[in-house]
Amino acid sequence: MRIAKTALVVLALTLLTGALVLAHDNLTGEEIIEQLKSDMALTGSGHAVLDLITENKRGDRREHGLVLFRSDDGNTEKQLVEYTSPADVRGTKFLSIYDAGKDETEMWLYLPALGRERRIAGHMTKGSFMGTDFTYEEIAGFSSYSDDYEAVRLADEEFDSRKCYVLDLTPTSDDIDYSKVKMWVWQEEMMPLRLDFFNADGQLSKRLLLSDFRQDSQGRYSPYNITMSNELEGTKTIVIIRETYEEVDDSYFTMRYLRQ
């Protein structure tokens, strides 16, 4: 009887595992993008110390030190990026606030040389942020692929030695810069590893790579290396996360701090 019961348990587990694999394999593009644990890095609340490296088409590099503060209460997301080095950009700050009840993200850039902030709005949000390969919108990081794109699942592939879902994303609004985005999603953790961005002419415009994934105290994975390359211009921007902290003070997300 004991042998028979063991056999039944093994059979039940086998059938259950098979059902789970089948359900996993049958996920649609929309279901996959809805299950993404993160569209980008540095989500939630806390702060981080970063290195930002810009590389021109000749391969010349310039290094910057930054600190990033984030707050997310489920309704309002706030972010402040502050340059700490080199000396010519130290004190430059970028504040962005997204309120779910408003149509657009509010953005301000403070330049110490001018001694005042300026509002980043309209077409300016799609411009290059501080000479990097990221736009102001991308640095703000409040967009959601599940909200802004329709997803179609393509054939699975392996990328960076990980099994990936591959998605073809088409924008749902004319406000989005890219005509198409192709995304590789790490199946085991449901996190994006690579995104290819195509311009209006169908050319590969930019590529985003996320790597060096590490687990936090709660077992959640985050990338500690983010690289955006401009495939048309031959330039590259690398963000390396040096330290992360869970605490953050809400005073960082004020106009008073921005002007200090």
Describe the protein in words.
- It is a single chain.
- The chain is globular.
- By secondary structure, it is of the alpha+beta class.
- It has a single domain (31-258), classed as outer membrane lipoprotein receptor (LolB), chain A, CATH 2.50.20.
- The chain has helices at residues 2-25, 29-34, 136-140, 145-148, 255-258; strands spanning 46-55, 61-72, 76-85, 93-99, 106-111, 116-120, 149-159, 162-171, 180-186, 191-198, 204-215, 221-230, 235-245.
- The relative contact order is 0.17.
- Strands 6-5-4-3-2-1-13-12-11-10-9-8-7 form a 13-stranded antiparallel β-sheet.
- The chain is built from five helices and 13 strands.
- 17% of the residues lie in helices and 46% in strands.
Corresponding CATH architecture:
Clam
Q: What is the highest CATH level, the class?
A: Mainly Beta
Q: Kindly, what is the distance between the CA atoms of the first and last residues, rounded to a whole number of angstroms?
A: 77 Å
Task: Tell me what portion of residues adopts beta-strand conformation.
Answer: over 45%
Specify the CATH homologous superfamily: Lipoprotein localisation LolA/LolB/LppX
Shape: globular
Question: Main sheet, how many strands, which sense, barrel?
Answer: 13 strands, antiparallel
Q: Give me the CATH fold name.
A: outer membrane lipoprotein receptor (LolB), chain A
Q: Whole-number average pLDDT? A: 88
Q: What's the number of extended β-strand segments?
A: 13
The tally of helices reads: 5
Helix/sheet category: alpha+beta
Number of domains: 1
**SSE string, helices as H and strands as E:** HHEEEEEEHHEEEEEEEH
Please state how the strands of the largest beta sheet are arranged side by side: 6-5-4-3-2-1-13-12-11-10-9-8-7
Q: What value does the Rg take, in angstroms?
A: 21 Å
Helix content: 10-25%
Low-confidence stretches: 1-23
